[in-house]
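Students often ask why inverse folding is considered easier than folding. One informal answer: many sequences map to the same fold, so there is more than one right answer. In these notes we will look at a single instance of the problem. The structure comes first.
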C-alpha cells in the first residue's frame, strides 16, 4: 500500500517567473494585487520578484519598491530570487523580503547559457 503525505506545501513562483518572462512590464499595483490574491488563497510562500541585473531583466528593476509596498499577510512568506552576492545584498536590504536561501541546479540550455 502506498503511503501519501498528510499535507503538501506549494511555493508559488508565478509573480516572479511569470512577470520576469514577459517582454512588457506590468504596473506595480497590478503585480501587488496578484501577490495579495495568491497569499489570500492560503499559500504559505510566494516568490514575488528577483534581484537580478535591471539591464538583463528590466521587468524586475523595481523589486525594492514592490517589497516596500507589500501588505504582508500573517502566515505567508514573501521571497525573492537572486543569483549572485550583489543580488543577495539587494534582497537583504529590503526589510519585507523573507530571505530563503537555497542552492538550485538547472541543466537545461536556457538556464545555462550566458
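Output (designed amino acids):
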Amino acid at each position: 500500500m502506498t503511503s501519501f503525505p498528510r499535507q503538501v506545501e506549494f511555493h508559488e513562483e508565478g509573480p516572479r517567473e511569470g512577470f520576469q518572462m514577459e517582454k512588457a512590464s506590468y504596473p506595480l499595483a497590478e503585480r501587488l494585487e496578484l501577490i495579495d490574491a495568491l497569499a489570500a488563497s492560503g499559500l504559505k510562500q510566494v516568490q514575488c520578484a528577483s534581484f537580478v541585473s535591471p539591464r538583463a531583466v528590466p521587468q524586475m528593476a523595481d523589486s525594492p519598491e514592490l517589497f516596500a509596498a507589500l501588505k504582508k499577510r500573517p502566515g505567508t512568506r514573501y521571497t525573492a530570487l537572486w543569483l549572485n552576492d550583489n543580488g543577495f545584498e539587494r534582497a537583504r536590504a529590503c526589510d519585507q523580503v523573507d530571505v530563503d536561501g537555497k542552492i538550485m541546479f538547472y541543466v537545461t540550455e536556457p538556464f545555462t547559457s550566458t
